[in-house]
Amino acid sequence: RSRLEPIKKVAKTIKEHLWGILNAIVLKVSNGPAEGLNSRLKMIKVRSRGFRNKERFANAIYFHLGGLDLYPDGITR
Fold first, then answer.
1. Phi and psi at residue 73, in whole multiples of 5°?
2. Are 37 and 46 in contact (CB under 8 A)?
3. Where are the alpha helices (DSSP H) in 17-76?
4. CA distances from 56 to 39, 51, 52, 53, 62 (A)
5. What is this structure's pTM?
């Protein structure tokens, strides 16, 4: 096995994704927010130990990530 094989593989990967890399740098965009949301959704699913139907999963998402203020009047966090 050649020492250059890993370098060639990296070069090929960069070549295949060059436009995406350049767009991310120029436009300063990231998939970080999407990954963060996916992580939070996965945590809801794990903590509940699964859902029997999609409606209950959607309700759990709304409850945990909906941003509702559920505290009574006069009580602050």
1. -55, 140
2. no
3. 18-27, 32-48, 54-65
4. 18, 7, 7, 6, 10
5. 0.56
